[in-house]
Write a structure and sequence with these properties.
The structure holds two protein chains of two kinds.
Chain A lengths: L9 H19 L1 H21 L7 E7 L4 H12 L3 E6 L2 H9 L5 E5 L3 H8 L5 E4 L4 H26 L22 H31 L1 H6 L5 H30 L8 H25 L3 H18 L12 H7 L3 H14 L4 H25 L6
Parallel strand pairs in A: 1-2, 1-3
Antiparallel strand pairs in A: 3-4
Chain B lengths: L10 E12 L2 E13 L4 E5 L6 H8 L7 E6 L2 E2 L4 H5 L2 E4 L11 H11 L7 H12 L14 H13 L5 E4 L8 H18 L2 E6 L10 E6 L2 E6 L1 H5 L6 E5 L4 H10 L4 E7 L2 E6 L8 H7 L4 E3 L4 H10 L23 E12 L2 E12 L3 E5 L6 H8 L7 E6 L2 E2 H11 E4 L11 H11 L4 H14 L15 H12 L6 E5 L7 H16 L3 E6 L10 E6 L2 E6 L1 H6 L11 H16 L4
Parallel strand pairs in B: 3-8, 3-9, 6-7, 7-8, 17-22, 17-23, 20-21, 21-22
Antiparallel strand pairs in B: 1-2, 1-4, 4-5, 9-10, 11-13, 11-14, 12-13, 15-16, 15-18, 18-19, 23-24
């Protein structure tokens, strides 16, 4: 009797109103567009083109104390390598100076006795100095120098008609990413970062903004149910997040030529699952914090940075200290990165996919249970 | 008609208590409140800031749960079934609840969806609401681009899309210009008359009480009374008098009258001082005639505000002299014009906040900048303080051109920012010490000024308390004291009385008057029209332009008609705004 006239299917009308309003706001708000569309593209191009964990064209100083045919033969091997950009120095002092001033990242030093020892034992040691400031880069450079030297020695031995007398020869074979392009595992991993950005950061920001501007209070006094408010926020950002994921897949496949060896359907399902986890985190943050600044800080520290650093997206989890490795188990992106990298580079490897997907499903359930319990249509 | 009888209250509260924990303390926002809001009437919920008005509104809307007590709205138990109540009532929070990046039409559509108004009923309802609010021509405009008054009307329209039987409006008239305020009241009356809606409207403006059918008076979480507005002012019959004053003498006259025995309240009212006596009398009291020195004293009808002040002030000692003068009088050197503003513009991107403003302020006068929110008052102020450069034009303060010597000019002036910028987690004494040091005071001079401030502003009992925990009126005193630490010759006060209760407002003006009498130049912004009467001269601003410049008497004089021989500042303001609208939009 007291109720106002109400349309049939009130719940559907209310939900439709919420979703439509949310899309209009996303399209009109520059900061939403920046997070949902601009940031993903910037990240993709940054990681696709800018960031490379490979050593390429490393500036290398070459010093031969006693130049002769043998030394120039070895030095030519460095010159022909793709990995190095060689510079010749007359003596070790000037080469060291160049290393100090960062004109070169490493020195290959052939001492006076190089040819004599080569002739006598066919095992001529070379001096290698590498700039260790960037430990990762130094290790890779060192490996490449080693490789170039080894293969030259083999050639030399073959030319002399002798077998190289080395105790063990390592013959490396790399699977799944034979060329060892870091881009091939970085770009798929970005999907996790981008979806976290939209699901957790953007969602928590827009809800906090409703609190800040006082619109949430007006919203709550309408007949809308709390689950409709939550769904009204979930649906638009779910669609937006999946859009970001598709964009990444398209760019990865055709712009950066990353192979997609697994099934696309599985990728879609796994992404949907991860999107739910990210949205669950976003909603939970917005319930805890009703202020955009705080919500943004929490989202970045609790979701975005871990997705970046602790997910295995860039840094190998296996080489982290044990306590940090333990923490990575709490980072949802870790499971998803593992799924995406597997699907892209290896294929439908069920023993990898299933446990990771299970972990994600569990996390989604936990977050939504918490959201449902904490969310209420009250201000207290 | 409906199931609950016509006499059943639209809203009832029984023994409602609600407290909040802030920091480590418990604040009781509402204390055992019992009240019944009648159906199909406008009820005003009146009380100063912090009285518990918003808490009451939120409880009635089912947004908060009471600690104890029962709340029924339209016969529905709000505590047990808030959703049911929310589908029957409408509530407009203080900030309207508009989506600023949606257009007027999109906001209406959104709320129509949420309130479940059937599609078929939408077009006629929209038309009706747009007509009522005058928003018809602006349906495609983003809500964020509307003026303050239009936003408020749109907020109201959104609440009304699916007509509620009970309408709760939380301070809908705060910071809105008088023209929009008047229009809002017309809409509210119409809703009650034509749709038989029950309206509960909260306000801190005491003059709005008289516009309500019924008034609920709330103070510090307790119900002080409920009844028709004239029932409150009836006991004041024969206690209110008007003592005429000539020109600038009115401030001194007010001071003198306020100190007399038996006087509860003395307030500048237009070109006279309005006095409230403790006892009723048939003839003008002799003390008033003596103090007025021959000027006429006439009886005036009591107002709601008189009753309010009398109730609150009887508990406190009356006629206390408050002196806030400087230790040394301001240097009376240099030219007579202390502040000069000539053709000043300020742009923010495409938006022009201040358009060609000019005025000059003389030494020792109280000069007012009057206007609604968004009129450009604060922007003008910040430029005068050297906090914001002007886009064009010349600003001079105490002989210093602000473009070249903003720092020098700042040393001569005291500034009290809007909402009292204090360090909430420092104590009162620490705040004073900080502000004194920031103006270069130290050692004995600083200690002396702090002692002076604590004493003059009666802050000594609070010296070691956190300033964030002070009541608003005390925060205002502290901010005022902080602005006076270095004994400035010029005082800038930005919305000093906004949100402060009527008693604190009176005290504030007593202090400001005393400072002006001692030769300090005071520049003050306000959106309270009646406070304009304290100013010697003022400018009225609207949308970045100066509409009028002169003394309050001159401004009111222009709107004097046979039907309205004593126009108020509000009448003058509305007249000026309407004249401007005519100029800008000639009849189509």
């Amino acid at each position: 009797m007291n109720r106002r006239p109400e349309a049939r299917g009130g719940a559907r009308t209310r939900l439709r109103g919420m979703v439509r309003k949310e899309f209009l706001q996303i399209l009109r708000d520059p900061s939403s567009i920046a997070i949902a569309f601009v940031m993903p593209v910037v990240l993709l191009f940054l990681f696709g083109y800018g960031v490379s964990l490979d050593a390429k064209d490393v500036p290398l100083a070459l010093v031969a104390d006693h130049p002769d045919t043998n030394t120039s033969g070895l030095l030519r091997a460095f010159e022909h390598s793709d990995y190095f950009t060689p510079y010749h120095y007359a003596d070790i002092q000037t080469a060291m100076q160049a290393l100090r001033t960062q004109q070169v990242d490493g020195i290959v030093w052939l001492r006076e006795d190089f040819s004599r020892r080569l002739l006598s034992s066919a095992d001529a040691p070379i001096g290698v100095i590498v700039n260790g400031v960037n430990a990762n880069q130094a290790r890779i450079t060192e490996g490449y120098i080693q490789g170039a030297w080894q293969s030259w020695l083999e050639h030399y031995a073959a030319a002399q008609g002798r077998e190289l007398e080395a105790p063990v020869m390592v013959e490396p074979r790399v699977w799944f990413n034979a060329a060892l392009y870091s881009r091939h595992f970085l770009v798929p991993g970005l999907i996790a970062v981008i979806m976290t950005l939209i699901g957790a950061l953007l969602t928590s920001l827009v809800i906090a903004r409703e609190w800040e501007r006082g619109t949430m209070e007006a919203l709550m006094v309408t007949p809308i149910r709390i689950r409709e408010i939550l769904l009204g926020k979930l649906i638009p950002y779910f669609i937006l997040g999946m859009g970001g994921m598709l964009l990444t897949v398209v760019l990865a496949r055709w712009q950066f030529e990353v192979p997609l060896r697994g099934s696309f359907l599985l990728l879609l399902l796994a992404s949907a699952l991860f999107m739910l986890v990210a949205l669950g985190m976003g909603l939970l943050i917005s319930i805890v914090s009703k202020n955009q600044f705080v919500a943004g800080q929490i989202a970045i520290i609790v979701t975005f940075l871990p997705a970046f650093i602790l997910s295995g997206f860039i840094f190998d989890i296996g080489s982290m200290p044990a306590p940090v490795q333990f923490i990575t188990h709490l980072v949802p992106a870790r499971y998803f990165v593992s799924i995406v990298q597997t699907l892209f580079l290896a294929g439908d490897i069920w023993p990898v996919l299933l446990p990771n997907a299970g972990a994600l499903a569990l996390m989604a359930a936990v977050f939504f249970a918490l959201v449902r319990r904490r969310a209420s249509k009250r201000l207290d | 008609m409906g199931a609950p009888g016509a006499d059943a209250p639209a809203l009832s509260l029984a023994g409602v208590t609600r407290s909040f924990r802030v920091g480590g303390r418990t604040i009781t926002a509402l204390d055992r409140v019992d009240l019944k809001i009648p159906a199909a009437r406008v009820t005003g919920l009146i009380g100063p800031d912090g009285a518990g008005k918003t808490t009451l509104m939120r409880l009635a809307a089912g947004l908060l749960r009471p600690d104890s007590g029962a709340i029924r709205a339209l016969g529905i138990d709000v505590v047990a079934d808030p959703l049911e109540a929310q589908s029957a009532l409408g509530y407009m929070p203080q900030r309207f609840g508009l989506y600023e990046d949606l257009s007027v039409q999109e906001n209406l559509d959104f709320y129509a969806d949420l309130q479940g108004l059937p599609e078929a009923q939408r077009p006629p309802r929209y038309e009706q609401l747009l007509h009522m609010t005058g928003l018809g021509p602006f349906t495609r405009r983003l809500a964020g681009r509307l003026s303050g008054g239009m936003k408020q009307k749109l907020g109201l329209a959104c609440t009304l899309v699916n007509p509620p039987r009970l309408l709760l409006l939380d301070e809908p008239t705060v910071g809105v210009d008088p023209v929009s305020r008047r229009e809002l009241w017309q809409i509210v009356y119409r809703l009650v008359r034509e749709e038989r809606m029950s309206v509960l409207l909260s306000t801190a403006y005491l003059d709005e009480a008289e516009r309500c059918d019924e008034v609920v008076l709330l103070h510090k979480g307790a119900l002080l009374g409920q009844g028709r507005p004239d029932a409150f002012s009836a006991p004041m019959q024969g206690r209110t008098w008007r003592v005429a004053a000539e020109g600038a003498g009115k401030r001194r006259l007010q001071q003198r009258l306020g100190a007399l025995p038996g006087v509860i309240d003395a307030l500048i009212d237009g070109e006279a001082v309005r006095v409230v006596m403790a006892q009723p009398a048939a003839q003008p009291p002799a003390v008033l005639q003596a103090a007025g020195a021959g000027v006429p004293v006439e009886a005036v009808p009591p107002r709601f505000e008189d009753a309010f002040i009398a109730r609150l002030k009887s508990a406190r000692e009356a006629g206390r002299a408050v002196e806030a003068t400087h230790a040394r009088p301001p240097a009376a050197t240099g030219a007579d014009t202390v502040i000069e503003v000539r053709d000043v513009y300020r742009r923010f991107g495409d938006f022009v906040a201040v358009k060609g403003v000019s005025f000059a302020v003389r030494r020792g006068e109280i000069f007012g900048l009057l206007g609604a929110n968004g009129a450009g008052k604060s922007t003008t102020f910040r430029m005068l303080c050297g906090l914001l450069p002007s886009s064009a034009g010349k600003l001079t303060v105490a002989g210093h051109d602000l473009r070249h010597a903003a720092a020098k000019a700042r040393g001569r002036l005291g500034y009290m920012a809007q909402r009292f910028s204090l360090y909430a987690n420092l104590t009162v004494a620490e705040n004073l010490r900080f502000f004194a040091s920031s103006y270069g005071l130290d050692g004995a001079a600083r200690a002396e000024r702090i002692r002076w401030a604590l004493e003059t502003f009666e802050l000594a009992p609070y010296a070691d308390g956190n300033s964030g925990d002070l009541p608003l009126g005390f925060k205002q005193r502290l901010a005022f004291a902080a602005a006076l630490m270095h004994e400035p010759d010029i005082l800038f006060l930005d919305e000093p009385t906004s949100g402060v209760d009527p008693l604190a407002r009176r005290e504030f003006w007593e202090r400001t008057n005393a400072l002006a009498e001692s030769g300090v130049t005071v520049l003050v912004t306000t959106h309270f029209m009646d406070e304009a009467n304290y100013c010697d001269r003022l400018v009225i601003m609207a949308e970045g332009e100066v509409l009028a410049f002169g003394t309050p008497a001159e401004m009111k004089q222009r709107f004097r008609t046979p039907g309205n021989p004593h126009p108020t500042m509000e009448d003058a303001f509305i007249g000026l705004i309407e004249a401007r609208a005519m100029r800008h939009e000639p009849a189509a």
